[in-house]
Amino acid sequence: MTIEHGSDDTTLASGSLSLSGSVDAGVRNEVAAAAVSGVVLQAGTVVGGVHVHSPHPAVPTPRQLPPVPAAFVGHAPELAALSSALTPEHHGNAGRVAVVAGAGGMGKTWLVSHWAHHHVDRFPDGQLFVDLLGFSPAAPLEPTAVLRGFLEALNVEPWRVPPDLHSRTAMFRSLAEGRRILIVLDNAADVEQVAPLLPGASTCAVVVTSRRHLAGLVTRFGANLIRMGVLVEDEPRRLLVARLGVARVDNASDAVSELLRLCAGHPLALAVVAGRAQADPHVLFAELAEELRDPPTRLAALADEDPASSLPAVLDWSLRALAPGPRRMLGLLAIAPGPDIDAAAAASLAAVSISAANAAFRVLLQASLVDRHSTGRYRMHDLIRLHAHDLCGESERSSALRRVVDFYLHTAHAGDRHLNPRATPLQLSRPVAGCEPLPLAPDDRAIMTWFDANHCCLLAAQQVATARDWHDVTWSLARVLFGYHDRRGLSSTGFAGGCDYPLGGGTGAVVW
Questions:
Q1: How far is CA 189 from CA 209, 367, 406, in A?
Q2: Is residue 407 a contact partner of residue 401, using CB atoms and an 8 Å limit?
Q3: Based on the number of CB atoms within 10 Å of its own CB, is 89 exposed (0-12), middle (13-18) or buried (19 or more)?
Q4: What is the mean pLDDT of residues 124-139?
Q5: 3-state SS class at 187
Q6: Under a CB-based contact definition with an 8 Å cutoff, are residues 463 and 477 in contact?
Q7: Disulfide-capable partner of 210 in 187, 188, 195, 421 (CB 3.0 to 4.6 Å)?
Q8: Residue 506 in 3-state DSSP?
Q9: For a pLDDT cut of 90, what percent of the chain falls above it?
Q10: DSSP letters along 470-502, please?
Q11: Which residues contact 244 (CB under 8 A, 6 or more apart)?
């Protein structure tokens, strides 16, 4: 470094240090700090201004995307939705933001990485990527720390990075203006973590992945919400073929079919199965299917040493983020009879009001732990259901089952009384405390619609009653289903037509 004396100022440039003029030997300057970034000037007396010229090494354009996902298959609708959401023509001068939301292990990061690598030419000024650690063993990243990394990646010297969040956000947005940059904010915890990281430039595009829907980004910033679901149709098999080869998969078609059924299209579950088979070429698919067949050992068979690749660990972090009320509701939903449920039945299941049940469902929906169908009914993936099974104790589970079975019995009985007014009415005991049967409208079409929607749940409730030796309830459920079965043409041996849900128990439901 050289200090050059001029008439009005002193200029520092890189090189060797030389001083002109006298220096007091008694003067000693020290820097008391563990670490110093930037330039430090030590001098006895400085007259005039000081200009610091430091070398600017060439910083490459940031290319921070993770590696291209291996053997990526399926999700064509989600990929198309991403392309549409991040197309400039669809947004005018507004920023382009997409939120990819889904349960843990659904492959959100794989999807975004796959899409980004295939559209990298759209973003010649760089791609920024950060794992925000929203759902992981480590604490979520602070936006301030993320912005420092972004600014330095965009060639801002460390000593020029502002100390506070708002100034860093302002600088980031200024630098992003006019540039075509893709920003991927992976594994976000909430809207507050994401909002300061959004550029203001319409030339940039942002993709956020989260287990939550982050509705605030949709409301405040016009983000496009893309819901990530399971693999469907032949996609699970294609994933195994891509990882293991067609010959190995075809040679064990029966065991593979059972594995695909037990994984139920869950991408991470399939990836764990494929990884185990890939790591050990001698492992038999039949052995893997045997481990997954038994519910108590199924999740353990889908575990991995890497928490990010272990289905139980991934699901556990979603459950830990829940408040006590929604967490209790999730645990009770895990034992509810039938493939799905509505808010009225869930209210009796949990002994809460319908409004409280709806509030819990909103939280679980936002957390991607349940899905809501167009009919207004809620469904949980089998592996999430299995993981949530033990969130409540046995005593609470037993009481909840009795309440929801009574809900189905008394609601169906009221419907059957309208459909068959001449039949001898049943003399039912009063519903147990906390059960509030649904008052059905006195209309044949509305009642039949309710029976259609709840048929599988009624059959499953009957099996719960049988398994728990509630014999009067078992008989009564069979009786109140008679009118509905008769109108739908369901015989005593074929009444389960249209219900593809495995009712379990192996005893079959009892019919009138």
A1: 9, 10, 39
A2: no
A3: exposed
A4: 95
A5: strand
A6: no
A7: 188
A8: coil
A9: 74
A10: -HHHHHHHHHHTHHHHHHHT--TTTTTTT--S-
A11: 274, 277, 278
In the prediction, which pLDDT does 468 show?
A: 96
Interatomic CA distance for residues 478 and 486, integer angstroms? 12
Whole-number Å distance between alpha carbons of 406 and 147: 55
User: Average pLDDT for residues 419-432, to the nearest whole number?
Assistant: 91
Residues 19 and 1 sit within 8 Å (Cβ to Cβ): no
Amino acid at the residue 52: V
What confidence score (pLDDT) does residue 164 get? Answer: 96
Is the predicted pLDDT of residue 80 greater than 70, yes or no?
yes
Nearest to 184 by CA among 117, 229, 245, 264: 117
- Residue 423: what pLDDT? 86
Residues 6+ apart with CB under 8 A from 504: 460, 463
Query: Do 507 and 460 touch, CB atoms closer than 8 A?
Result: no
Asked whether 151 and 168 are in contact (CB, 8 A), the reply is: yes
E strand residue ranges, 69-188: 96-101, 127-131, 182-188
Helix (H, G, I), strand (E, B) or coil at 210: strand
Q: How far apart are CA 399 and CA 401, in angstroms?
A: 5
DSSP alpha helix (H) spans, 339-443: 343-350, 354-366, 382-388, 394-419
- For the chain, percent helix, then strand, then coil, each to nearest 5? 45, 10, 45
Q: How far apart are CA 478 and CA 495, in angstroms?
A: 11
